[in-house]
UniProtKB/TrEMBL annotation:
The keyword Iron belongs to this UniProt entry's keyword annotation: yes
Origin species: Pedobacter caeni
GO cellular component, one term: cell outer membrane
Record-given protein name: Iron complex outermembrane recepter protein
GO MF term list: carbohydrate binding; siderophore uptake transmembrane transporter activity; signaling receptor activity
Highest taxon above the source species: Bacteria
Residues annotated as signal peptide: 1-20
Keywords (A to Z) from UniProt: Cell outer membrane, Ion transport, Iron, Iron transport, Membrane, Receptor, Signal, TonB box, Transmembrane, Transmembrane beta strand, Transport
Bilayer topology: Multi-pass membrane protein
Amino acid sequence: MKIKVFSIIFLFLLNAKLFAQSGTGSLTGNIVSFQEEPISGATIQFQNTGIRTKTDSRGNFSLKAIPAGTYVLIVSNVGYTATKQNLIISEGKTSIINLQLSKSKQELQEVVISSIKNPYQVKNSGSSTRMDVPLLSTPQSVQVVSSQALKDRQAFTLNEIAGTFTGMKANNGNGSFNMRGFTAYSPTDASFLLYNGIRGNLFLWSQQPLLYNVESVELLRGPSGALFSEGAPGGVVNFITKKPMVQSSYGVELSLGSWNFRRASLDLTGPLSKNKKLLYRAIIGYDKSKSFRDDQNKENIFFAPSLTYLFSDQTELNLEVNYAYQKTVQQYDNGTFIRTRPDGTFDFNYYPDHLTVQSPTDYGKTHNSSATLTFNHRFNDRLKMTAVQRIVNNILDYTDHIPVGKIKNDSISRGYQDWETNRFSLQTTAYLTYEAKTGPLKHQLIGGADYNRYGWTKNDYQYKPASRISIFNPDYSNDPPSASIKAEESDDNKRITNLVGLYLQDQISFGKQLKALLSLRYDSYRAKETPLSIRDNKQGDELQASGLIPRVGLVYLPAENISIYGTYLKSFNPQTSNNVLAGGPFPTRKATQYEIGYKGDFFNQQLSTAVSLYQINYANILAPAPTEENSHRQAAIDGTRSRGIEFTVMGTLQNFNVIAGYAYNDHTILSTSAFGKKGDRFNNAPKHMANVWLKYNLRTGMVKGLGLAAGLRYVSDQVGLISNQNFIFPEYTVLDAAINYRRGRYNLQFNAYNLTDKHYFTGSRSGTVTGGLGEPFNYRIGLSYQIK
């Protein structure tokens, strides 16, 4: 499988290189501002082609092997007005062009222009360092899936795009993901999902995060606590949302698909005032669907209005509001049943796909809302301030039937959960960025502070025993249990956590080729859980933790398109519970990562490649350790080690767009404990994952505007439960394909997923009775129209 993947990539690279070697010329030049200051990172691109590059730190650029002909050259950069110019490239000659760009506030429009011409490649990301730094100069493995890639995949949730990232997968149909061998799941890693680099996940852990208002998705691999505080040790996912634009634009999208899937969205943006200082954007979405499993229905309503006011070239204010309502039958996606054979092995094909774990009487209703106010002010060319206030509120009301114990004679005992909760997050972030020089050294400094107050004001949970059912012939007439049945477990409490963080970072440039990144963060947590009635079975919990989080990184650029980096990261995560009744207090979770890597942009810098080798040591993971007397007992695992290698290719080669990756990961327990022996594999952590997505775009002739795409996702076998190393989900390969036709403002698209109708399991939650089940063959038809 791996050999086939790399052979395909190699052949495409070789063919594109040979094609570019005949009948070509070159272009060099320099881009500066009207103050004669070099503009770094400006985009140089030939309209309606995949030929593009960016300027270096001195504003210089160079493009080679350009097919001879007449072109329209577009030069753009964030904060400057884009310019166009006709240009002739002659065979065997080098053209020279020098331009000046004037400052503007139309940077959002320019980003859109840039993304269309090379739709799969993103060269800059400010998320890892909170500065607009090229990925080549960032000492961390960062991958960005662009807006066009989301559209080509017709991916509407994070779960549907997770497999496009190298080394990432969705464990089930909820908000649980695996990155570098670690599971990121909201109840234990509240901040692994960021919005524009700010904490505050809009969606609860029982939901698949929606992408209606998402422009691109970033994966920052490894611990990222130096800037973002706690998070999953395997990585952090950052959503870049769509912002108001200076140019008016109105778009509509309609989709239909398998299992009665229906989706519609509207995206409106433009100026609200004649002087174009007040801009707006409004995104409205609705979808409804059933499932290949029995009695599973889902309905989403999404609304995201935003406003931007441009006080001047130096100052702007942005307000973004999100509201998401979800109504479901069966809020949690618990997958389907797995049969245990008499000899202790497992039959993953025994029970049909359509069977469901829950009851048709279950329901879920979720109201998610957020508001983010962002203020940016540039004092001068060297000093800038950003202040952000983000508020998130989640209200959940759901009931759920869950399997209890083992399956016997194709029947299962069940429990019943009834839960109402009201959760919140108030995040205040402010930081300054400053550029300075000390002798020959250049500094990009950032210093800031965070205050996060989060938790819940209501947490009303009850658990009762429910009737036993036959799996093949279930009788739900006794669902839900009678109100007279006494709850065996109950929560009725509130919890408030206060987090204060301070951080300082300096990216030092030792000339053009060597850079160092030094970061230090201090975090202090204070949390208290208070019972609201005698029904609460915990009767209080308190948490106090503090610590320093360092980061050290080095980047060496032997050429302007190649970098080699090394990084050392640490983080700590307070336990989500230290309750004595659950076995607490528990030691703080700690992660230490060592990583070295390589990044390179080739073929006129249109194709980005990256290789990284890493090791993460993680101590004091809190995991379930139930006993007959205490089903909620927990314990901290002494430690685990995750190490591996990742390879990624993204970008454009002539008419081809490509995203490809391979990841090897070995995540094992370091010492023998009640959970397993030293060397045992960690759960939901496959050793091998590979992905390829290729799209061919026809740009000339009778079928101009036609696009053909195909891809695969491969996941090797994975242990489903730490305590049972024989519970292994089989490997799987899923094939997908797509075809689209773009004509003027219309785009018609057809996507087919799991072409071979592969029966496969994606991961486990907490037992051997059920597993996350992958979707069988399904399809989507989409039509989009850009009104203006």
